[in-house]
Amino acid sequence: MTQTFWSAWILLWLSAIGTCAGNLFLKQANLALSNPGLLSVVISPWFVGAIACYIFDLVLFTQALQHLPVSAAVPVASGLRIAATVILADVFFNEHFTFNQAFASSLIIAGIVMMSRP
């Protein structure tokens, strides 16, 4: 495997982390405000941070797609985003990480491993 191939997978993982962080920032934008109206959420620093994370995600995902097949990259990135968001929502927002979520996340990770293999 070439260094470019592995670099593309690293970019894909970082892209997924960017989306996950953006989702968590959006949640925090709503929690940080006593009256989360649309305008107050949009001008919140947490919301601006979420937008920055999503832009970060798009740039890295675009770079990863230069070297990875879209048929593998999209499912892997989607699975990573789901699994990481469930785990980090428990850590940062005390949302309960249930057995069903743990089981489903392990299936997602197993699928990622299978799809990542050449």
From TrEMBL:
Keyword entries, A-Z: Cell inner membrane, Cell membrane, Lipid A biosynthesis, Lipid biosynthesis, Lipid metabolism, Lipopolysaccharide biosynthesis, Membrane, Transmembrane, Transmembrane helix
Membrane spanning residue stretches: 38-60, 72-93
GO cellular component annotations of the record: plasma membrane
InterPro entries tied to this protein: EamA_dom, EmrE-like, Small_drug/metabolite_transptr
Gene Ontology terms describing biological process: lipopolysaccharide biosynthetic process
Pfam family, one: EamA
EamA domain: residues covered: 7-116
Identification of the protein by name: EamA family transporter
High-level lineage: Bacteria, Bacillati, Cyanobacteriota, Cyanophyceae, Nostocales
